[in-house]
């Protein structure tokens, strides 16, 4: 491969993560290749048939992009899964649980100090 041919190629990655496995597939593509084309060329759709690009969003290094975004060298195209829980609701639940635990511990401490107080 001569220099002109090499300069027309880009090294990119296509990434997808499930709870049980993370895939990062290196790929060499031509200049002008789009994010959707890289996903198709990577073979990830065959390896992970649950991916539905009509429903799932894609991005490059954490920033959402459209499927027709042209790639640059060293880009990592990421396929995002849908959220299984609303982040705000989950945060509220954790805070409420932590507060309940603190309240329960405070009651236990108050109860034990009364029991341990010396009588005159």
TrEMBL record:
Region named Disordered: 88-120
InterPro entries cross-referenced by the UniProt entry: Mopterin_synth/thiamin_S_b (IPR016155), RnfH (IPR005346), RnfH_sf (IPR037021)
Low complexity: bias regions: 102-120
Domain of life (superkingdom): Bacteria
Similarity field: Belongs to the UPF0125 (RnfH) family.
NCBIfam families: PRK01777.1 (NF002490)
UniProt protein name: UPF0125 protein SAMN05216526_0545
Protein's organism: Ectothiorhodosinus mongolicus
């Amino acid at each position: 491969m001569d220099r002109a041919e090499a300069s027309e190629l880009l090294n990119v990655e296509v990434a997808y993560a499930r709870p049980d496995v993370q895939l990062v597939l290196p790929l060499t593509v031509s200049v002008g290749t789009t994010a959707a084309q890289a996903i198709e060329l990577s073979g990830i759709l065959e390896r992970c048939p649950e991916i539905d690009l009509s429903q799932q969003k894609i991005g490059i290094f954490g920033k959402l992009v459209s499927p027709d975004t042209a790639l640059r060298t060293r880009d990592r195209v990421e396929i995002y899964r849908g959220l299984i829980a609303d982040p705000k609701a989950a945060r509220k639940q954790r805070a409420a649980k932590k507060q309940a635990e603190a309240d329960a511990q405070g009651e236990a401490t108050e109860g034990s100090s009364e029991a341990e107080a010396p009588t005159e």
